[in-house]
Amino acid sequence: MSPNTFSQIVLRERPVAGILPDTFESKTKAFDELHVGNSQALVQITYLSLDPAMRGWLNDARSYLPPVKIGEVMRSVGLGVVVRVGEGSKFQKGDMVYGMFGWTEYVVADDKSMEKISPPPGSTSIDFLNTLGIPGMTAYFGLHDVGKLKAGETLVVSGAAGAVGAVVCQLGKRAGARVIGIAGTSDKCAWLERDLGVEKVLNYKSPTFADDFAKAVGYLDVYFDNVGGDILELALSRLNKNARVVLCGGISAYNDPNPKGPASYMRLISQRAKMEGFIVLDYAEQYPVAVKEIAVGLADGSIKSNFHIVEGLQNAPSALPLLFSGANKGKLVVKVSDEPSMSPKL
């Protein structure tokens, strides 16, 4: 039988700094409200991705995507299974799909807003929320198109144990670079060195971090920045001539209502260096190229995935802040449901 109701989580109020318990609220919707039109499909959500960029979507500010509105379902990339199709839909019942579905158990989505996924050898569907999804695409194009990393160069990655950072480290190794990561716990540092083969990983909470950084890095050619703040300042002090700084994120400042910019930017002049930001959505037409290369790494074992799975849609609001405290271990996702019931009523 199909459910009578389903749950959604909507934005209740905009946070000023950190995400609070009452930032979001749960809503119960009647299943009968879901009407599948032409070239549409009803999708039951299985997994949702939690990403640092979601904090920026809560601000009422101009950005690359409009802010989530008060009362609107929280925006999120996710996976799901098609359980009903409208007339003219290109999908079939049972298809596994990927799209910007949001924090909901069910959604009616336009065909053009989602894509069918078929995991390549060595991967599973959930990898499309990690190495084969937005984190992997961000790592690939940020490193190769913006960072222009070359074999033999020194690559430094902040937030190295995060979803994007871990892929950057592994792609850097595949490219023949000397890779140095930065993380916030001894467990994360050990995982990066032991399991991912990163040459050296530094704990930024260590009292000797600045000295350790200088000794381990020397001077860097590419700095892939996921953190901003003091670590970005430190990286700017260790630039090689013609270095490239890839501005992917600034998680240290996402909850700061008055973030500060870098004071050491003049080093960019003296070292003829570049500092460039990018948005991965601009590379959407090139995703298949990156998926193909990363899939090869998944198949041969040179690229690995790691997940932190939170059970239940209702726990998404309390799980999202884990990204900003560094409490997650691996790509943070929410499991919303198991494989759906494919009853005739659906």
TrEMBL record:
Secretion signal, residue range per the UniProt entry: none
Which part of the chain is the Enoyl reductase (ER) domain? 29-334
| UniProt-listed CDD domains | PGDH
Give this protein's Gene Ontology molecular function annotations.
oxidoreductase activity, acting on the CH-CH group of donors, NAD or NADP as acceptor
Q: Which domain of life is it from?
A: Eukaryota
Protein's name according to its UniProt entry: Enoyl reductase (ER) domain-containing protein
Q: What lineage is this protein's organism placed in?
A: Eukaryota, Fungi, Dikarya, Basidiomycota, Agaricomycotina
Record keywords, A-Z: Oxidoreductase
The record ties this protein, via Gene3D superfamilies, to: Medium-chain alcohol dehydrogenases, catalytic domain, NAD(P)-binding Rossmann-like Domain
The record's annotation in InterPro entries points to:
ADH-like_C (IPR013149), ADH_N_2 (IPR041694), ER (IPR020843), GroES-like_sf (IPR011032), MDR_fam (IPR045010), NAD(P)-bd_dom_sf (IPR036291)
Q: Which organism is it from?
A: Suillus luteus UH-Slu-Lm8-n1
Q: Which PANTHER family match?
A: ALCOHOL DEHYDROGENASE, ZINC-CONTAINING (AFU_ORTHOLOGUE AFUA_7G04530), PROSTAGLANDIN REDUCTASE
Alphabetical list of SMART domains matching this protein: PKS_ER
Classification via SUPFAM superfamilies: GroES-like, NAD(P)-binding Rossmann-fold domains
UniProt-listed Pfam families? ADH_N_2, ADH_zinc_N
